[in-house]
Write a structure and sequence with these properties.
The protein is an alpha+beta fold. The chain has one domain. The protein has 2 helices and 5 strands, in the order E-E-H-H-E-E-E. A 5-stranded antiparallel β-sheet has the order 1-2-5-4-3, with helices on one face. The radius of gyration is 13 Å and the shape is globular. The N terminus is likely disordered.
C-alpha cells in the first residue's frame, strides 16, 4: 500500500481514498455534487483499505442498509454513523467524510 495524504486535504481529490500512516486509517470525502450515492464511496474506501476489488468483496448491505445510509446521511444534516464490516470499523458523517480503520 502506498502512503498518501488523506484525500480531503487535496483539492480535486473528492471521492478518492487516502491513507494516513500516523493513525493507520483510510480517509475519503464523498462528492455530494456527483450522481454517485454515498454508499458507493463507502465501498470504494473499504476496497482500498482491503486491497480488494469492490465486486469481489462481501456486500456491505449484509451489515447495513445502504438505502438508509444514503437517505439518512445528507450534506444538510449533522449525523455520524458507525458500523463494522469484516474486521474494519467504518465511520461515515453527513459531511461526507468516511474513515476506515482496523
Amino acid at each position: 500500500m502506498t502512503d498518501v495524504e488523506p484525500a480531503y486535504d487535496s483539492p480535486g481529490l473528492v471521492d478518492r481514498v487516502g491513507y494516513d500512516p500516523t493513525t493507520e486509517t483510510y480517509h475519503a470525502l464523498h462528492d455530494w455534487t456527483s450522481d454517485s450515492p454515498l454508499s458507493i464511496t463507502v465501498v470504494e474506501a473499504l476496497a482500498t483499505a482491503t486491497g480488494d476489488e469492490p465486486t469481489e468483496m462481501r456486500p456491505i448491505h449484509s451489515v447495513i442498509d445502504t438505502d438508509a445510509l444514503d437517505r439518512v446521511l445528507s450534506r444538510d444534516d449533522t449525523v455520524m454513523l458507525s458500523f463494522t464490516w469484516e474486521d474494519h470499523d467504518v465511520q461515515v458523517s453527513s459531511s461526507g467524510e468516511i474513515i476506515v480503520s482496523r
